[in-house]
Each structure stands twice: as C-alpha cells, then as structure tokens.
Amino acid sequence: MTEARTGRHRRAGLAGALLMIVFVAVNLRPAIAAVGPVLTEIRDAFGLSGTAAGALTTLPLAFFGSYGLVAAFLRRPPRSETLLVTAMALLVAGLVLRLLDAPFPLFAGSLLAGIAISVGNIAMPAIIKRDHPARITTVTAVYTVAVSAGASVASGLAVPIEDAFDASWRLPLGLLAIPAALAGLVWLPRARRAAHAARSAPPVTSARGMAARLWRSRLAWQVTVFMGMQSLLAYVVLGWLPTLCQDRGMDETTAGYVLALAAGLQAVGSLAVPVLARRTRDQRPLVVATVALSMLGFAGATWAPIESVWGWTVVLGLGQGLGFASALSFIGLRAHDAQVAAQLSGMAQGIGYVIAALGPLAIGALHDATDGWTVPMAAVLLVCALMALPGLAAGRNRTIGGTARGTGEPATDGVNAEISGHIPN
Known about the structure:
Elements: H1 2-25, H2 30-33, H3 39-46, H4 50-62, H5 66-71, H6 80-97, H7 103-131, H8 136-165, H9 170-175, H10 177-199, H11 207-214, H12 218-247, H13 252-277, H14 284-303, H15 309-333, H16 338-370, H17 374-386, H18 388-394
C-alpha cells in the first residue's frame, strides 16, 4: 500500500514538473510565429521592404541565444528558476512595446522579445538535465511539443482573431502577453525558493573557466552547429512559409493555416524522438531522417502543385520536429552534468541562434534580388544537406569530457578533467 502511494506521489510530482515546463514552453515561440501570417499586413502598414520585413523576424532570432553568450562570462549565473521568471517578464514588456504605432518600438519590442526568449531557451535544458537525468529525451520531447504547440496555435489563430473582432494585427500579437504573464506568476514561488537555497549553497565551479574549456570541445561545436542549422531552417518556415504560399496564390488566412500545420506536426516529430531513440544505438538515424524529410518538404512546398502543399507541409513539419527535439536532447545527452549542460546550452543556443537568424534575412534578400523563390529555396536545400555533417558527429554516443558510452574509450574533445566523467542517462 505504501509503495503504491509512493508511486502515485512520484507520478503526480512528475506530472506537476512537466506542467510547469509546459507553462513556459508554450510562450517561447508565439511572439515570432504569430508574425508570419500577418507579416504582409505589417509590411504594408509601415512600408517595409522585403529585407526589412525579414529583419522583423530575424531581429529576435539573432538574440534567441544572446543570454547564452553573456552567461559564459558571469562568475555565478542566476538560478534557472529565476531566469525563467525574468524571461517571462521581459517577454511581456517586449510584446506590449511593439504594439505602439511606430517602426522603432515595433523593432525594439521584437528585439526585447528575442532576448526574453533566449533566457528561457538557455535555462530549460539545464533544468531538464538536473531534475530529469534519467528521462532526458522524454522530457525534452514534452518540452519541444509544448514549444511547437504554442507556435502552431499562435500562427493558426492570428488572422482568425483579427477577423472575428474586426481588428488589426495588433490584437492577436498583444494577446500573447497574457499567457506569458501567467507563466511568470506560476514559476515565481519556485524561483523564490531557489534563490533562498542558493544563498546557503556551497560554491560551484567557476562558470567562466568551465565555459572556456567547453568552447575548445569539438563535440560541443558539433552540437552547436547542428542546433544552428536546424534552427535556421525552422525560422525560414516561421518567417517565410506563409508568404511563399501567398505568392503561389493562396489567401492570407489559408497560408496561416499552412504554417500552423507545420508547427503542429513538429510536435508529432518531437514525440517520435524518444520512441525512435530507444530502438537505435545512437541518435545518428534521427539526423538522417531529419535531413531527408526537411529536403523533401521544402522542395515539395516550393515546386509541387500548390494543391499538394498540405502533404508536403506534413513531411516538413515531421522533419523539423525530429531535428528540434534531437538538437535539444544533444545538450543533455552530451553533457556530463547539469552544470555542463547549462554551459553547453548557452554555447549551442547562443551561437546556434545567431546562425539561425541569418536564414530569414538571407531568404528575404535573395527573394528581393531574384524576384522569385527558386534561388532562395535552392539555398535552403543546400543547408539541409550540409546539416548532416555536424548532426552525424553530434549523434554519436559520447559525452563532453567523459567516455564513449558502453565502450570505455576516452573522449577526445579537449575538455580537461574538471568537467570530465560520465553519468548514464
């Protein structure tokens, strides 16, 4: 009886922890995803060029990993719970700021939203590694599903909300501040307890020294480049898929539904990661599937008959879901412990999202220069193919500073013994 009660308590505790993660995760993409369906309207309202419109989605993406770059230089970074509350507060401020009727606050609010999301992006993988070391791929899948679901709902409802209330693009974008505020309030008590515990905790290894060694790790760079390239492809979809569909003859509302479908199918792809991971020796098959599905999806959405775009969007969404969940799982699976995971999260996302930010901007510039989609999408397919190189390397069962899992062979990533060792996941 006692064992049964203990089991129920554990399951309830896990469910509660997952729900806390979901509260934050659903807010980490809508600020960007909701812009795509109304981007044409925003561009017309402010007279933006294609490049400037691309910058509107690129600006927050460029700062998606900004906190990770800063964290490497902090002597003692804040607790992850504190970071999540801070992220939600900054996100609310950015969402409200960009509602003002002028180009500067529009871009400034988008920048602030990107910084806010970067803080949440960096903090969450470290929390998953620390609190769920035996369930990294499963909990990461739940997290990525929630991220994808938030993006899907935001992109799918942006135009219908406009139409239902006979409003402008400001209403659907402004409403996003409500769930962000609620998520911050949900995490606030836990952040206070974490801050109290931190004051009496023993000193930890210098974050600066650990970061310096981590940045010399070949494996860390492989994880980072794969994160950046799969994110670049994802943000091309977020920023330009609706516009591509509209240029091919689709109306604004339906194009928003296409983006919502792509984001929704990412959730399915993410859920497949822990299932497939249990059936393979390492994560390299996931990388191969990601590359193949992404290439098929982009090519079909661009050149196949527009009536078939729904099927190609399904393929594309599944591929991107696999890629996103795999990239985030690499942070926990390739790190020795939560401290290393926090630093690897900062590096992978700090640099990775800078790489990703080039996507929407470059696609907008290529579209303006060629007045078509052939050259931009050919470039996208090239990125898909090149993504296999760092992905296959990152997918091997190794840990940073540890040993190759199950082989006893020493890791050769250049990180010294201070952050070495291996704890099975």
